[in-house]
Structures are given as structure tokens and as C-alpha cells.
Task: structure prediction
Amino acid sequence: MSSLPQITVQELAEKMALGESIQLVDVRELQELSIASLPGFKHLPLSASESWSTNIHSHLDSELETLVLCHHGMRSAQMCQWLIGQGFANVKNISGGIDAYSIQVDGRIPQY
Result:
């Protein structure tokens, strides 16, 4: 799994601040989102993949840079590998997840 492209939370914050044309995906559970979330992320919980996986191309653009977030980076890595298998060309795992974002970028984001 180490060959999976990664992006740091600092790089994510820069891309978001610059308004780059990126696709942001959060694979955490609804209850996790209610504790801590970032703006602009499409919520596709990994546990509910049966409800969105068959029509993933209607949810996401396979040509856009796609950055995937979870709590610490494990579930998002699974999602990245799956998306690559579905033909997504530019997918990156947000290393450290929202936990790292809270610690390194924005302390106002609650930790859990």
C-alpha cells in the first residue's frame, strides 16, 4: 500500500485555499462527520459502498484530481485503491486524515 499516492494535510489546505479544481471525498461515517468535517467534501461512507459503488462515475469525475479523507488514513487508502481500480487516474490519499488536519492545520477542527 506504500505505493499509493499521498498528499499531506498542509498540501490539502493549500489546494483548498487556492480553489484548485479538485474533487474531495470523505469516506467516514455520518456520526464522525457530525463531530468533525471539512467544507467541500462529498460524503461517500465506505460502509455504505453498496449504495454508491455501482454508479461511482455519476458521483465522481474520474478525470479530476481526487483526494480522499478519513479519520487517520486507512479507510481512505482502501477507497483510493478501489477508485484506481475503477479507472480514476489521479487519486491521492490524505495522509493522517482529519486527525492530522486538526493537529497540523486547523486546531478548531475537533479531534475524536
